[in-house]
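Data card: per-record layout.
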Amino acid sequence: MNMKKGFFFSMDAFFAILLFTLVIALIYLFSISFNSLQQQYVFADDLLNLVDRVKINDLDLVKYSGIASLNIKDKNVTIIEQVVTYYNQSNFYAINKTLDDLTLKLRGNYKFGLYIGDVLVYGNQSSGVSNLVARSRISIIKRIV
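The structure for this 145-residue chain is written out next.
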C-alpha cells in the first residue's frame, strides 16, 4: 500500500516539474521574440535618423562612391532632401544608387522600403513579412531660391 502512495507522489512531482519547465520555456521564447521586435524598432528609427539628419557633405564620399558618382551639386542638404529632389525629377536610378550605397552594410536579414506619400520609391513591398515595423517622419523641405 505504501508503494502505491509513493508511486503516485513521484508521478505528481514529475508532472509538476514538467509543467514548470514548460512555463519557463514559454516565457523565454516570448522574451526572445519581444526583444527582436524592439531591435527592429530601434534599427528603423536609426535608419530614419540617418537619412533625415545627415547631410551629403558629412559623408565620406570616398567610402560612398555610388553617391559621389551622382555629381550632386548642392551637398549641403540632408540625404532625404536629396532623395526627394530625385523623386521630383523622377530619377529613380539616383534614388536607388544613393540608398543602396548607404544601406549596403545594414541589410543583413532586414528588408526595408522608403515611401514618399503612398509611393514606394526604394526597397521592397511589405507583403509576406512576419514582423513589420513602420516608422514615419514628416520633413518639411523648404528651399529659398
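Known properties of this structure: The helical segments are 2-53, 65-68, 79-88, 92-103. The beta strands are 113-116, 119-123.

See the next section for split statistics.
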